[in-house]
Amino acid sequence: MTGQEALHDHLATGQTTVARAWAVTRTDGVRYGFTDHDRDLVFDGITFRADTGLSARALSQATGLSVDNTEAMGALSDAAIREEDIAAGRFDGAEVVAWLVNWADVTARRVMFRGHIGELRRGAGAFHAELRGLTETLNRPVGRAFQKPCTAVLGDDSCRFDLDTPGYVHTGALEDVEEGRVFLFGPLPGFEPGWFQRGRLVVQDGAAHGLSGAIKRDRFREDGRRVIEIWEPLRAPVVPGDSVRIEAGCDKRFETCRLKFNNLLNFQGFPDLPEEDWVTVHPSLARRKDGGSRR
């Protein structure tokens, strides 16, 4: 008998011992378990804690392609979900799985919801997290884009470039930080100016460990120090001495793929695609087509 069948039989008795449980998996792999039962529950290798004050509104579900939504609410706790982690964006896009489970026999359970965290609000020592179902992704455009620039992300399955290749990544300690978005290094010999522009910066340790940002500018200062600037400040403090990884940038051009990365065979753009004004071109009626006079 499956866990779902066992739960169905238990519900049919009319005297139930059921509770709700949620598993939250952040994009960095950290997992949390919560339950509205008064004791901890353990299954699927997760301990679902009862002392977190987490609760959830009724789940809205529908047939067809409608988006399933619900909302989880709870008190902020240092031992569970911390306010600084929410502020840093560590729970943005986290996967959520919700069960209805027989707390007297946790093998009798059923998945009631599977999706991701959408809008996340916090304040007055509590948080409210909008939960969006799997059908939410159907609201996004999909398919191949036919354009001159490459559509792949540097290092992904389509690009196939190994970013750990020597000469394309640097990991080292920061000399200084300004406004949470301007990072100062030493000269970084071997990397020409602009090498990391359009690349990625990833913090390796400290309070902002695991957070990343897209690199807006890569330049030298008059004192010879290398300046890496990202588009938006990181949402956790970064201090001098923290270790940071910076990766080479790609502007998606055919020439860059060939000359900078030697990865032409995996280029995902269409460099010979005609310009938009090509569709307005019509056959010429002139006898001569060499630019000279018609006479």
UniProtKB/TrEMBL annotation:
Signal peptide: none annotated. This is Bacteriophage phiJL001 Gp84 C-terminal domain-containing protein. Residues 194-277 form the Bacteriophage phiJL001 Gp84 C-terminal domain. It comes from Pseudoponticoccus marisrubri. NCBIfam families: phg_TIGR02218. InterPro entries: Phage_phiJL001_Gp84 (IPR011928), Phage_phiJL001_Gp84_C (IPR018964). Pfam families: Phage_BR0599, Phage_phiJL001_Gp84_N. The lineage of its organism: Bacteria, Pseudomonadati, Pseudomonadota, Alphaproteobacteria, Rhodobacterales.
